[in-house]
Structure formats: C-alpha cells, structure tokens
Amino acid sequence: MIQDFFRKDLSDFESYNAGKIDYKVRLNANESFNNLGAATRRKLGMVIEDSIYNRYPDAGALQVCNLYAKYAKVESINVMAGNGSDECIQIIAHTFLNTGAKVAIQSPDFSMYGLYTKVAGGIPIEFPLSEDLKLDVEGFITMANREEVKIVFLSNPNNPTGGTITRENIIKIIEGCRCIVVIDEAYFEFYGETIVDKINTYENLIVLRTCSKIGLAAIRLGFLITNNVLMEELKKVKPPYNVNAITQSIGSVVLEEPKIIYKNVERILIERKYLWEKLSCIDGIKLYKAEANFILVEVLNAKLVKEQLLEQSINVRSFTSGVLENCLRITIGSREENDCLLNNITLGNDNNM
Q1: For 49, 141, 211, 321, which has the most beta carbons within 10 A of its beta carbon?
Q2: Residue 82 to residue 220: CA distance in whole angstroms
Q3: What structural domains and CATH numbers belong to the chain?
C-alpha cells in the first residue's frame, strides 16, 4: 500500500485549512483592511509589466532585503527574506532541530511554531499562559532549561491574545534560556516596541517580521533578522529563489515609500481605538487589551455568536477550548466593517447573555 511510505509521526496531522474567503466582512485573518492606493497600484503595474519572466529571481532578494533593513534600522547582511514569515519559521526549525529535539512555546500562541517543529521531527513543549493570559517569565525560563529545548518561539505581541511581554522580560528570556530564542514581531507596527536592536548583543536571538499585516498579505513576504553567525547557518537551509520576482518587486516599491505603511498602520490604529470603545460598551463582552491589529473578546457562547455572525456573512476567529474557550479574535476592519460587526454582535450577545 502506498500508505506504507507515509511518515507515521504525521498520521494524526490535519492539513491547514484557511477557510472560505467569500464572506462580506472578513475579520478572521488579521489582514489589513486597506488595499494599496491607485497611484501605487499603477506603479506596481508598470513594474510587473517590466519584469523578466524567463529568468530566476535574485536568490538573495537583495534589493528588498536592503530596503527592509533600512525600514527596520538594521544592517542588510542581517536580513533574510522568506515566502512569508511562515517559511522563516520553517527554515529555523530545519536548521536547528534534530529528530526528537524540543522546542518551547507559550500556549496559546501562533500554531505554526508547533506545526513546523513537528514536521522537522521535533517536539513542541507548551507552557500555558495564566488565566489572565500572562506569561510567567521565570517559570517559562525554568521549563525551557529543564527540558533542554533547542529553540524558544514567542510572538510579541501574542497571536491570538494580543498581549505583550515587556522588553525587560524579553531580555530575561534571551539571557536566561540556554537555546536559540525567536521573537516573532509580526504585529510590531501596532505595538511600537522591538528587540531587533539586540541581534548583535545576543548570539542566540532571531527576530521575525512580516509584511502581511501592513497591507501586503497577498504577496507573501516575511523577514528573518539575526546576527552574522546564525545567519550563515540559516543560509545552509534556505531554499534558493524562495521569494519570487513579482513579490520582490512589489515589496521593493512599497518599502521605497514607507509612508504607505505608516498611513496604513495609522488608519488601523484609529479603527482599533474606535472598535475597542464600542465593544467596551456592550454588556457581556470581556475585552483583553490588544497591541495588535485585532482584539480578543470573551463572550458567554462564542460558538453561537460566531454562527450568528456568519449568517450575516461576517467572519471572525473563534476558540472553543482551553484558556480561550468562548473567545473571539476580531481583526480590525474598516469603519463600515466594524459598524457591521457591532450591529450584529450586539444582537448576538443580547440573545445569549
């Protein structure tokens, strides 16, 4: 049987299902509600028209890495581009994990850390957040060292809670954990705090960034930022030509004019404040302070509320177990999208509170 050739350790895996995308209001995937402006899209059209399609792209994505390095205020030699930050996570796992090696992650956190760990043959060790969704930093460090993990993955701000770990505590983790420490700053733009300035101070530090939350989710462009020693090791595993020419070109156009990003983020932060204030006025909804482009809320019956929203073609992310039971993660939308959600989630809660 052909199944005899399958990996036994992946027998219980389920393929990642991103879900339908044809909902009228999509507030489930932490995308930006802002598309690029008309002038920028026209410029992109010309760049794409002039692209060379019969040749491989720049294997090192040097132009877009140089531009992102300027944006992130680091040296270009410290930046690697990936097919989304997902691929950067995968590269890290395959670079440093042997079969049976352990990885420490907080729970809940971005699911791809555990998935890529398992695909690489590693073992994810989950450290649960407290009831109020905070990380016990000292306990986490103790666990990581006791388990002799090779990698720590932490998103900051956290996805899906929106919570943060202070810079002081991030440094404690980097200094205290005897392993590679990966800080995923996918939501950096909405938080404003970073540890990227410490990549050359700590030999075990890797920082991840992405363009997916700032208006470029469609092109799949992420970045890995680290010191020269780790970078040389990671390059051994990075696939050649992993970022296609069109993505490199589009990313370069936008990064050449970072004001496009700043304006996008500003609009999202305005809407985050608006949505937070409106949700806080609804009885029966508990809000968790968010520093990302989404808000986590807790209701009495998240499954039912989500079903009612779906009936109105409004999609949000729901959770049904663990510390996030009865929580909804709501991506910040446009004013029209946010009002549509507010009108309908109010009805949903009134029926169930």
Answers
A1: 211
A2: 8
A3: 19-36+260-350 (3.90.1150.10), 54-255 (3.40.640.10)
